[in-house]
Each structure stands twice: as structure tokens, then as C-alpha cells.
Amino acid sequence: MKKIAVLMGGTSNERAVSLVSGRNVAEALASLGKYEVIPVTLDADNLDALPDGIDAAYIALHGGWGENGGVQAALNARGIPYTGPGAESSRIAMDKIKTKIVLEMKGVPTAKWTLASKGAASCPLPLPAVVKPPRDGSSVGISKVAAPDAWPAALDAALAAQGGEGEVLVETFIPGRETTVGLIDGVALPAIEIVAANGWYGYEEKYNSEATRYPFLADSADPKDAELERQLQKIAVDAYNALGCRGVTRVDFRVDPDGRIFVLELNTSPGFTSHSLVPKAGMRTGLTFAEVCDKILSSAATDARG
């Protein structure tokens, strides 16, 4: 693989984040001196902007067609290897409802959930609960509902993120700690805890706040956290395998005060911004940022089933 296209931009709500990830990845791969790196900004849900002669594609798209199996299927059709899971696994992971169903079928622990539609007068689960658009990422349209009067605004925000129609996902809020584990080629990276200043890890806390902290569990003074990390990594691998992932994926968790672990979701095209957690975890293993990108690129493949 010599001529590498880094796909970024796209048409989803996460376009701005994708552009940052894509530029970072393109610069990192170019710095290695062994690739001809071509940044490709997509402005539509097709590969018309992709030049001929590409040996592999690094997918730095987030959300929408870039993460729901669309671009993966299009690359399969052209026979171009690409990073991240195949089309079918991407379709499942991008749909939080389908993900929940598969995780439950495979015995992977996840929070209690249900669905709600436009006009629902009250939250269908006991409060506190979390309301999410099923097919968006980067915490777009996600709200925590702690009191009944917060329900209408939370429902409207989740619906707005998906064009105002359809069903939204409602989950029981799991109190406790938020953690994440990245995987490359099915191998779990060091676990990271996410500590937001106000206790809520939303869009602002992810991308704009300097107050959010990301300590590694391995650095914890609590000896129990070593075992917690081992359990998180095992469940991350279980979730990854349950959805048939390959390449790079990130698994997000909540851990309740009793130490019970719940998978929130899988991200099959995790960010590569200055705040992103997969590159942080990869660098913890001794790699540079560029080497993390290179390791992910080396896993590029097509999916005959896509």
C-alpha cells in the first residue's frame, strides 16, 4: 500500500470533527515518509471525489454514510482496502438499537433500554435516564433526564438530530464511572477513565473543554482498578467480536458503584483529534501518534460480505 486516501468530511452532524481527525491522520501518515497521502474531503454520500489508483483508504469519517456501512460497501465494490470494520458490522454498530439487540443476544452486559417516539408525554423508564438518537455519534443530541420536566426538551433534541422523525433510544442512566477501551485488530488497548468536570461527558466536554480528564486505570492508586481494567478489556473484546468487528474500534462503558460493567456503544470510526482516546491509548503502549495511525492502516481490508 503506497497511495493512501484519507477520507474525511462527509454529510453527517459530525463533519467538523471528521475534518480535524482527517487532517491529523493525513499529516501523521505523511510524516512517516513511506506513503503518498491524499486527503479526500467528501461533500456527498458517494466516492466521486476519490482519485484513481488508490491502494487503500483510511476512513476518518464520523457518523452517517461514513460509519453506517455506506462508504464501506462502496469501497468493497471498488476492491479498495479500508480501515475499520466491514460494512455489516459498521451498519450494526452505528445503529444503537441494533447494537443493543446483538449485545444482549451475545450475553454482553448493557444498560436497560427502550424506545420513545415523537409526542411521548413522559419518559418510559424510571429517572434518571439518557435519551439518544440511535444513529448519531459524538454525543450529538444526547441528554440526561434527571427530572420529569426535562423530558420534552431531551426528546426534541434527540429527534432533531435525526430530522425530527423516528424513534429515539432511552437508556437507564448508570451512575458511577465512565470508561473506554480501544481495540486494534482485536487487541485491547489500555483502559481510560473519562472524568468530566460536571459529571456529564457531552459534546462540549468531548471536544471543547480542557477540564475533562482522561486518566489511565493503570495509573490508579486503587489496587482494585487493575482487575477492573482486565474485566473492561475482556468485555471490550467480547463486544468487538459480537459485532464482527475488525481493525480499529472503541468500546464505551459505564461502571456502577458496585463494580458492574455495562457497554454503552461501539464506535467503529473513533476520532483522531487532540482530545480523542484511541490515539491516547495507542501512544500509551509506546507508539507515536503516527505509528498508531500506521498500525490501523496496516489492518485495512475489504469485506466480501459487504
Question: Can you characterise this structure?
Answer:
It is a single chain. Strands 8, 9, 10, 11 and 12 form a five-stranded antiparallel β-sheet that branches. The chain is globular, with a radius of gyration of 19 Å. Helix content is 31%, strand content 21%. It has 306 residues and is α+β, with helices and mostly antiparallel strands. The chain has three domains: 3-84, Rossmann fold, CATH 3.40.50.20; 93-109 and 174-295, D-amino Acid Aminotransferase, Chain A, domain 1, CATH 3.30.470.20; 113-172, 2-Layer Sandwich (Dna Ligase, domain 1), CATH 3.30.1490. It is built from nine helices and twelve strands.
The general outline is globular
Measured between the Cα atoms of the first and last residue, the distance is 21 Å
How would you state the average pLDDT, rounded? 93
CATH-assigned fold name of the largest domain = D-amino Acid Aminotransferase, Chain A, domain 1
- Supply the CATH architecture of the largest domain: 2-Layer Sandwich
Percentage of residues in DSSP E strands: 15-25%
CATH class of the largest domain: Alpha Beta
Poorly predicted sequence stretches spanning 5 or more consecutive residues: none
Number of domains: 3
Nearest-angstrom radius of gyration?
19 Å
Number of helices, where a helix is a run of at least 4 consecutive DSSP H or I residues: 9
Order of helices and strands: EHEEHHHEEEHEEEEHHEEHH
Class by helix and strand content? alpha+beta
Helix content: 25-40%
Name of the CATH superfamily of the largest domain:
ATP-grasp fold, B domain
The largest sheet is: 5 strands, antiparallel
Number of strands: 12
